[in-house]
Specification:
- The structure is a homodimer.
- Helices cover about 40% and strands about 15% of the residues of chain A.
- The first copy, chain A, is an alpha/beta fold and about 325 residues long.
- In chain A, the strands form four sheets. A six-stranded parallel β-sheet of chain A has the order 2-1-3-6-7-13, covered by helices on one side. Chain A has a four-stranded parallel β-sheet with strand order 9-8-10-11, with helices on both faces.
- In chain A, helix 4 (about 65-80) runs parallel beside helix 10 (about 285-300), helix 6 (about 150-165) packs parallel to helix 7 (about 180-195) and helix 8 crosses helix 9 (about 235-250).
- The longest helix of chain A is centred in the middle third of the chain and has 16 residues, at about 180-195.
- The interface of A and B includes residues 270 and 272 of A.
- Chain A binds a DNA duplex (16 and 16 nucleotides) through helix 1 and helix 3.
DNA sequence: CTGAAAGCGCTTACAG
DNA sequence: CTGAAAGCGCTTACAG
């Protein structure tokens, strides 16, 4: 091309410091003119690194993840790493595909946002030989780094907020039973009741799955209860919004006769009527911290135990969907 | 391993029909037992195909795209193709990265959801030598296949709907000026006014950028107008929702004193108060059709011109945010 | 500081 | 129907 070997071109692109200034300049110019781009497949094959991380999300349609992804991408791209998104569509069927991609050497590390280690056939991702980091949803018993918020404490704080407003009959709308967020938030809800001198056995627990429709269904159950709870904590915002809307359509004043608290702090909670009291998770920061840990692990560093468990704060946003408990009880 | 050459293993995995049943069985068993997975980088390098398509989205945070992505993934994965997501974060800065990925041979084709052909430095994606297909947002003057909805006709229908309800003073909240959806929808809005015997020059045009906040700002402008329009068509749902909420907070009854129409039909439109009249785009189908065309092109087929421009219907969903024009005009 | 050469792990004509 | 062999396009010890 411009008088050098392919080895020199390779060095010009990967470690310019190794070359004499003149040589580097000539190569750079030739690269510019020809528009040469190194073939990534060949590089990956030879170097044994793909410069790519896989992000496993339970559901790409959930707006909660978009900011998390942005935080991840920020951090990875700063170090020259790309990002591959693996979407599970809220099921386990696609886990095998995830494991395949990793075992085929396509990525150097995996960021799990789905609360469990994907399995494919008889292989677990743990055996794939790449570093793992979990964020948002912690994986029980994991030995790899994890970053999330204090879900349990936040749920306790939700109950404290409602109890301070005078509410005594509370309801809880849950996520999928085996989901770690559901487990932590429900546990926190129960602890909060006890702390407020209330009996968890007297509370009402409604099933859900983190969707709008689950919130709608929960509202219908709730409206039929006698006596009706005066406050409800939903394990995420979508369900809280579905519930809010259905309760109001049925003529129930929120927060006049029913207070509602959600979880996550998606942007949408500020556009419903009334605006939703919820916990804001620091989404972008969750992504950034998780990606930073993964980068360190991908570069071969062992993450010391005291840095392997990061918990970021979840802030309570008191808005219009919570208010004082009604004085007169509904019949 | 189990008595055969690597060539035979390769054939067992890619074209099982070429082998004798016994041989195939032995290889399959060995693959099972060892958990062997072919290295994708090596395969890509040798075969010259990555079995991967790149999907370029303007903003992954926009919930509009999640169903589109699902449709794309459905269709691609059925043919063994994977999907790489390239997020532009609503800017042009990341376009160069897109071009690089393609020129580095990492993907076999590109699906553009961003309404323009990405450019990087002095290179356009058009010169990258892989097939392109645009969906959702058409690319002006493109010679590659495109799939979208009849944006202009839908916008006309929005005006017709409002005119039939007696509205004479209409406002329009737009997207970014250079966005093709904005251009088509605004053009349709103007045509609709003329068709209803109204003068576009008398209508009110408010700027926007497809975000909630733009809708909020537009509402503020709108409320200050004298005389105030009685109906507004926003170029997408987010802006319509931001506008709706701000107008109501300011005490304006919707649809009593102001009717609002959005565009896209995101799930959220059914959870605001009042529910939003909007156009539903067949999101999943847009993705499926686009991916199907791209698959054909990636397999080397030339798409005949009469199949290269697909337009799917956008259905008007009449909900609670539109109603008869107020009888008495506000002062 | 630079080049010649080996080799990453596959696939696929080419023989047989 | 199966194997031996070449080669995809890089990177990186190894020399010099």
């Amino acid at each position: 091309m411009a008088g050098v070997s392919t080895a020199t071109v390779s060095r010009a692109l990967s470690g310019p410091a190794q070359l004499r200034a003149g040589t580097l300049a000539r190569v750079t110019k030739a690269v510019q003119q020809t528009g040469y781009r190194p073939n990534i497949a060949a590089r990956t094959l030879r170097a044994g690194r793909a410069m790519l991380a896989l992000v496993v999300v339970p559901d790409i349609a959930n707006p909660f993840f978009s900011d998390v992804l942005r935080g991840i991408e920020d951090t990875l791209s700063r170090q020259g790493y790309g990002l591959l998104i693996g979407n599970l569509d809220n099921g386990r069927a696609k886990e095998a595909k995830i494991v395949d991609v990793v075992r085929a050497g396509q990525v150097d590390g995996v960021l799990l946002l789905n609360g469990r280690v994907p399995r494919g056939g008889n292989q677990s991702l743990l055996q794939a030989g790449v570093p793992l980091v979990a964020i948002c949803e912690a994986v029980a018993g994991a030995t790899f780094p994890q970053v999330d918020v204090h879900n349990r404490e936040a749920a306790r704080a939700a109950v404290a907020h409602l109890a301070a407003l005078g509410h005594r009959r509370l309801a809880y709308v849950g996520g999928p039973p085996r989901n770690v967020l559901e487990q932590e938030r429900q546990a926190g809800f129960r602890e909060g009741l006890k702390a407020a001198g209330l009996d968890p056995a007297q509370a009402c627990f409604l099933p859900g799955d983190f969707t709008f429709t689950a919130g709608t269904a929960a509202a219908t159950s709730l409206l039929a209860l006698q006596p009706r709870p005066t406050a409800v904590f939903a394990a995420n915002d979508e369900m809280a919004i579905g519930l809010l809307r259905t309760a109001r359509r049925a003529g129930l004043d929120v927060p006049g006769r029913l207070s509602v608290v959600g979880f996550d702090g998606i942007e949408f909670t500020d556009y419903v009527e009334p605006t939703l009291t919820t916990f804001r998770q620091p989404r972008r920061e969750l992504g950034q911290h998780g990606a930073a840990l993964l980068l360190r692990a991908m570069l071969g560093e062992a993450i010391p135990p005291n840095e392997a468990r990061l918990r970021l704060p979840a802030a309570l946003l008191v808005r219009d969907s919570t208010g004082p408990a009604p004085k007169e009880e509904p019949a």
